[in-house]
Amino acid sequence: MPNSPKYIGEPWIPHEMMDKLERMTKEHYRKCMEQRFKELVTKNGLEAAQAEVTDMDWESTFFLRHLPQSNISEFSDLDDDYRKLFKEFAKKLEELAEELLDLLCENLGLEKGYLKKAFHGTKGPNFGTKVANYPPCPKPELIKGLRAHTDAGGIILLFQDDKVSGLQLLKDDKWVDVPPMRHSIVVNLGDQIEVITNGKYKSVPHRVVTQTNGNRMSIASFYNPGNDAVIFQHRSW
């Protein structure tokens, strides 16, 4: 677990909820975001690129904040059913993230609740979701869907497309594919967990490579420390 993502499915997230969310997310992209993405590609001349593009990603995204205060009502192009479903899905993931924090404590020999308390600050943790689509790219050798990085926060819960691949992680200095798996949540750990555990759990570099066919969906939820939480290495190490 310290150096590679794990997959989680039921009983945390009902399969029918995941299927419906995937369907509605893809419908929303086609209806509300696809044309905007095409216009952005044309505006920036990405299809005509002759050299590697290092300052942009080939993705279409929006970000929903759940905690400490939701912003989902601000997105006027989300229909009511999609909004309601996303709230239910986010609540499931919030519960899962907190359970995982306690499991990390147990595995590390820390008192139960230590990590949740560390993340809390005075206003609670930050929790939000990046909804992304990675459309077909005519020049995948020149532009990444998402450039290589580590996640700055705590626990990352990824619900990704089960038909179109693209996610890779860096392992032993080589980029390794993370195969899509239906009805699963990929768990990754961010920089703040690495700090608290003094590297016992690693924040792994990862990226998204583009594909010439297929539109990849990614719903990545980030359970992070609150804005005023002070993160430091636990006294055990």
TrEMBL record:
GO molecular function annotation: metal ion binding; oxidoreductase activity
Pfam families, sorted: 2OG-FeII_Oxy
Fe2OG dioxygenase domain location: 125-225
Highest taxon in the source lineage: Eukaryota
Assigned keywords, A-Z: Iron, Metal-binding, Oxidoreductase
Similarity comment: Belongs to the iron/ascorbate-dependent oxidoreductase family.
Descriptive protein name: Fe2OG dioxygenase domain-containing protein
